[in-house]
User: Fold this.
Amino acid sequence: MQAMCRNIHTLHNFEPPATEDEVRGAALQFVRKVSGFTKPSQANTAAFERAVDEVAAATTRLLGELVTTAPPKDREVEAARKRERAAKRFAAA
Assistant:
């Protein structure tokens, strides 16, 4: 399992579209946040994994149904903006 990340990132309206791994990662983060578990106990693993699968499926459906007139965002440009904001934020701390 991956380490818990701080935020669930926007997946809508990117070019190229969100991958299955990105959708599952967001679902995993959501279930971790809601459950309070980074790694569930053996007794809770089945329920935890089922929840991740269901959230990922709902997210995939949602992303497939959303419409917008805005042009798709470029992943590289958005990543550079995030790095720049983080550098400013952590430099000020």
